[in-house]
Design a protein that fits this description.
The protein is mostly helical and 127 residues long. It has four helices and no strands. It has one domain: DksA, coiled-coil domain (Four Helix Bundle (Hemerythrin (Met), subunit A), Up-down Bundle). The chain is flat and about 55 Å long. The protein starts with 8 loop residues before the first helix and ends with a helix.
Amino acid sequence: MSEKTRYTDEELQEFKELILAKLEKAQRDYDLLKANVMNNDGNDTADTSPTFKVLEEGASALGKEEAGQLAQRQMKFIQHLQAALVRIENKTYGICRATGKLIPKERLRAVPHATLSIDVKQQNSKK
């Protein structure tokens, strides 16, 4: 029996559903982070007493900076998930970029946007 070169349409559909669920959650998280950065909730230092205003402004600036960095990471994650959906449509999903072999299902379930097998990923991280 020859080695599989790609996942079946049924398997790709299973991964697509997993990715769509993760994408929906990631988008919600991104929207929350973006709202935090833009301060859309209306809570700001204007509704605190003057005594705490200086401390609040410093904490607010730091919190917005952290939320901005998290929002950037979240957007990158969303883009990776969207790229994985394109690979599913092209039927190239789950194929290692380096070896051309199938990435194990367990890895794809844990990291659905993976493009490298765990062995290649570990080799790359040692360099």
